[in-house]
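[agent] plan:
  1. take the single chain provided in the ticket
  2. run structure prediction with default settings
  3. attach structure tokens to the ticket
  4. add a short note for the reviewer (M.T.)
[agent] executing step 1
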Amino acid sequence: MEHAIHNTQEALTSLGRTYSREQTILTEQATQLKAEAEKLDDEIRKLRTGDRETSVKVEVPHSARLREILRAELGLGANEVTYLCDVLQIPDPEWQNAVEGILGFNRFVLLVPPAHYDAAMQLYRKYKDTIHGATLLDTESILQHQTEHATRHLSPLKFKLTILPLALSSTLF
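[agent] step 2 finished; step 3 output follows
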């Protein structure tokens, strides 16, 4: 009888240790899941309140990643590496959503100061395998083409879509 009691005590002790280990593992997992849920709740809240940075990271993570790379490696500020949609000015605000809708994901094309474009392109090429779909706009070439085109064709435009003079103004940079 004593032997049976001893075996039962050993079995219960072993079960207690196993239970304790499993409880510790489950507690850790529960803590991790709660932290993840809080993070997701925060992202959902930011998306609902229009936190643009969070929205961009969710909608176009590769463009957001390229923006982070350009800012970090070129030492540029937030206002120097911008998304097209952030600097797009539509004269009639009622058309803003329509124009951005037509642009689709192209509204997340990145703009950098013309003086930094070549270095930005080198970084783009270096990280191209991890930033599929991200796009960098050559504002200097566009401005040069726009100036050449304007001197040849002076007719007024019926629909005017303007981009902030981001590339023209060195005061922003």
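[agent] step 4 note for reviewer: Confidence is low (pLDDT under 50) at residues 154-173.
[agent] ticket updated
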